[in-house]
Design goal:
By secondary structure, the protein is mainly beta. It contains one helix and seven strands. The strands form three sheets. Strands 5-6-7 form a three-stranded antiparallel beta sheet, with no helix packed on it. The longest helix has 9 residues.
């Protein structure tokens, strides 16, 4: 099962359920297309090469832990001291992430 839940209340907004052998990325692809603009999606580092990256096409915001082998390209320092970087996971288009 892959679910989209609210972090504070743990209320589940959407979910996809498959068999034990259904890959997590397959299930993630089912719920990603249904995200609404402004939704903040938190994703694990292993999902950087998955349909999760396409969440930005729905108007959702994406925040995920990147694998240690991914090298972010610095773009700019933001007013809060964090920085904007570009990550290019294999098999995906450009994705931007705040660090």
């Amino acid at each position: 099962m892959v679910a989209v839940a609210e972090c504070g209340t743990h209320a589940i907004f959407d979910a996809a359920v498959g068999t034990y052998t259904t890959p997590e990325n397959t299930l993630a692809g089912e719920v990603i297309d249904r995200l609404e603009p402004g939704t903040l999606l938190l994703a694990d580092r292993d999902s950087a090469d998955s349909p999760v990256v396409t969440a930005v096409a729905t108007g959702a915001h994406l925040l995920w832990r990147a694998n240690s082998n991914m090298k972010p390209r610095f773009i700019e320092t933001l007013s809060d001291g964090s920085w904007l970087a570009e990550l290019r996971p294999s098999g995906a288009g450009r994705a931007r992430s705040n660090h």
